[in-house]
Write the structure tokens for this entry.
Amino acid sequence: MAVATVIEEQKKRTEETALITGSEAIAVACKLADVDVITAYPIRPYDTVMQYVCKLVANGEMDCEYICAEGEHSQFEIVKHASACGARVFCGSSGVGWMYAMECLTVTPALRVPMIAMVGNRALDDPGAFGVEHNDALAVRDLGWQLVWVDNPQEALDTALIAYRVAEDRRVFLPCAISCDGAFLTHSQALVKIPTQEQVNQFLPPYDRGDLLLHPDNPITVAPQGNEDWVMEIRRQNYAAMERTYGVIKEAYADFERIFGRSYGNPFFEEYMTEDADIVLIGMGTLSVSVKVAIRQMRKQGKRVGFVRMRWFRPFAAEELAKSLQRFAAIGVVDRDYSFGSPYAGGVLAGEVRHALYPGQGKKPPVLGFICGLGGREVTIPDVERMANAVYDAADGKKQPLTQWIGLRE
Amino acid sequence: MDTYVQVDPTQKLDAYKAVKKIPLDEYFTSGHRTCQGCESALVMKMMAKAAGPRTIVLGSTGCMYVANTTYYSTSWVLPWMHTQLGSSGSAALGAAAALKALMRKGKMKKEPINVIAFCGDGGGADMGVGAISATLTHPDYNCLILMYDNESYANTDIQLSGSTPWGANTTFSTPGSVRRIMHRRWKKNMAGMMAAGHPTCRYVATVCMSYGLAAMNSIRKALAIGGPTFIHSLDPCPKGWDYDPYISHELGELAVNTGIWPLYEVEDGVLKLLGRTQQIAAKKIPRQPVRDYLLKQGRFAHFTNDDIDYFQSKVDEMWEKWLVPGVIPFKADLEADAAPSS
């Protein structure tokens, strides 16, 4: 019983290590964050987190209202209202489940509700697939959700704590979705350092809804009809809140390092072997695992390839990323998603990266887009080598399609 | 019992003995822009008054959202929050769950706070019926879901809902030269369905603000009894039903007196018919013909005598054939169902 083991170790007040999955890591984070209201609804692969939460509640390790909803729409609406009433909340979904909640996903950031949700990334129907694609979480990218991708269980746990800290900061009050690649992270175990409760309490202050609390002592009217008189000004407030997240995220990571003694470096993206790289690949989520292995192999053949793993997609650290990318001869963006009919028929991240590079003063390296790993298909080491070779060709000015599908059965 | 139902204490809300005992304090006041003669606005006012100041109200999209909460001129003295059209059940559950968790964990001062989520018939009988049903199965959370039924999507231009009466003229069922009756579905029996379908729900009632004191007392009982509860209110709507606003009150009475709108409550599974409905069932007063009700409303102006007869026959069936007259549409026997001749 991994959960029980984790809890036993917690009691010792020393940071212990446990072999747990990404989903379990987030359940442990919910326990450590003393979440008040959690809603569950089954859909693979995210729902494993709720199975762990259920055990924590049943074993008395966690005190929360744990509600099994009758659909994702209700699942998200229940916690939205609970958060408005001052409760720290957790929720989550995958694939079409996330899309079923779409109406609620639109109003949650608009209402400045700091909900934390886990997305176990899954391909949207149809045809049915349990495997990972990023289009589910990306569907809310324009709405005021903070979106972060993690690639291992330790990062999942740590990022969940950071997400509560950032989302519930009064300067922010925006929801955050933590994306964990279906199966590759939700169901894969790794050794995870479990922080002590004291550390978490030091890092994460209680949720204070302040003058936005829905309570008889504070009889406010929330979400009235604004219409053309006020909606634009209210949108501008959400814009300003999202702009403030950059600074609040940096603060949170700095405090995290100080309290937990673990550092993530640049919070927004991770750079791997970029110092001397000729070219780089950019991607999100667990494809980092095979990319990093492939890079190590390619370097033995003298190919100096680097990798940038985007962690925070919203907010998107465009200036910082552009500054970093201008060092390289060419860039390859690896998308585990699609955006049919988009500029150059590329993926979502490719469009963002090109957008980030355009306004800068410096060099503009060629950007190639790759679409791969859809529906949970593995991104293999030969796939990565193929992409790196194409990026080298782009650096040499060789003409080729701007978007290429990799690992496609011809 | 704690193992089975873990419900927090509720407010003590005794029935008002007479109109003069109703407090003068208002918690739904000026600032709204509902139509003249709007009975739903009256429901909001009386509901807030019956619940009192220690109450949180969640309102799903509909007339009582759009007309009542124009930014900067809210009519709510109580804390109020919008919820999505189909989410009254979820809103009630979420607020109640938050209060329960925060009070148990010492993060909020312990006190009984009423939670009311309201929805219109579109938000309740159509889109939100699943969420309402789910909430009524959660015995641990104190909340009331009130469905104000003006029998159409009255805020969006009077489109038919699952709660619109048979044959009514709405902008989605306009009579034409070839098809006179465009709406051929019988009105959903929401209160009966909620009572019959949720055995642990302790209180379900129908109300009509033409009988305001009784309606307020139903609301108070629903809030005080503990656990999730449901009230279905029939609200005459001058705009949607197409009548002169001064007869709103009279139309509510006619709906009851014709037997179209039975008033009842189901408390801990015990059915009690109320007021005029009880007298009709006991045959102390006759049911008025539905014609008296239908012909006062423009939405039935295209009805022929046959249409009225059909409507009357369906209402007669409610009272003469249903096992629980006016409430549950089960019948004891199949009638006029002779064995097929071989």
Chain A has 14 helices and 16 strands. Chain A touches chain B at residues 34, 36-37, 63-65, 67, 69-71, 73-74, 77-87, 103-104, 107, 206, 214-216, 218-227, 229-230 (CB under 8 Å).
